[in-house]
Amino acid sequence: MHRPTDNLRADHELTTRGVRVLAAIADWVAAGDEFPTADCASVLRFLREWVLAVHMRKEDEVMAPAVAMLADDDTAAVVGELLRLHEEITELAHSLVLFWEPIGDLTSSERSGFTETVRALVARLERRQQLEEDSLFPACDANVPGDDQLEWLESFAQLEAERGSRAVWVARIDALVTRWPI
Ligand SMILES: [Fe+2]
Is 165 helix (H, G, I), strand (E, B) or coil? Predict the structure, then answer.
């Protein structure tokens, strides 16, 4: 059976590639090179429109509440930590909105603000993904009945249909990776 955790692990492969492109852009900007406006806007759109609005909603609205209820206290604590990281990631992504269409080249303080914010964001995205793969997904596979999980796959497909599919974003991120080798 194709499980929800398999679907989310496939999401993580794409997210990891997008996050590495963002980190590569931050390194480029930190080195003083010209700000890559279009590519930066594309990868920030990916974060906002797909990682936050599709992938994390699959996890936090569909999967995590059931896992927190059915698994042990340690897993419930991990779910709390995941939600806290989700809030921080949302705030950090929002604070990068200034850099979507910067007018002219950035000042040195804008450059350092950008790179520090991106690095904080990347660290939280990586930490969240690690916690999910180490704790949330194994707890889901071990504790949630298969019938419940079948409905989740339908909810996942619905979210992708409404907000954007993984397949569409794979093509876009592949195009970015040709310019930002990771
Ligand atoms: Fe995730």
Answer: coil
- Cα of 39 from ligand 1 centre, angstroms: 23
Compute the distance from residue 109 Cα to the ligand 1 centre, in Å.
32
What's the 59 CA to ligand 1 centre distance in angstroms?
A: 7
Contact (Cβ atoms closer than 8 angstroms) between residue 136 and residue 59? yes
For ligand 1, the distance from its centroid to the CA atom of residue 83, given in whole angstroms, is 11
Contact 58, 86 (CB under 8 A): no
CA angle, residues 22, 34, 53, in degrees to nearest 5? 25
Amino acid at 100: W
Structural domains of the chain in order of their starting residue, each with its CATH number: 4-179 (1.20.120.520)
Assigned token pair, 174? 């592949």
Q: Around Cβ 78, how many Cβ atoms within 10 Å?
A: 21
CA distance 169 to 166: 5
pTM to 2 decimal places: 0.95
- Mean pLDDT, residues 155-176 taken together: 97
Q: What's residue 1's pLDDT?
A: 54
